[in-house]
Write a structure and sequence with these properties.
The chain is of the alpha+beta class. 20% of the residues lie in helices and 22% in strands. The chain has four helices and six strands, in the order βββααββαβα.
Amino acid sequence: MQSLGSGYTVATDRGYMYRIDAKDTDALGLSNAATAQASAVQEGTFSDQMVWDQLKTVYDPEIPVNIVDLGLVYSCVITPLEQGVNRVHIKMSMTAPGCGMGNVLKADVQSKLSRLPGVTEVHVEVVFDPPWHPGLMSDAAKLQLGFDLDYGTTHASPPIYGERK
């Protein structure tokens, strides 16, 4: 069982994975004390940083790293609307096109961003171009997952064979 963000990911003995929202933790025999923290809304004046901070509370259900550090968020466009409210448009990817938790991640992003003060519209678009690759992860994510910092990166120039002139 993995507990990060606002829910739990549990795996069955047959390998199926399920996400349990924090409000339903009693189904796992756990206290609902986490529910109050999970549903807490950030307060204060709306800012770009508030959006990015909220995105960092969304975790891939299969990997214990948030979606920003995994490099899944490709863009975040904030558009001011009338009466001081905002629209947030997120373009994000998955670690694999066949990811069965894609809709769960998308819904988690929509839910968390829509609770921010001054946000009235949230659009989350899942894209696969460019395809995600490990080189998009932050150094912190690579270290957390036990990878070398150069993991997933490509070398800028091919190796030179023979004599240099």
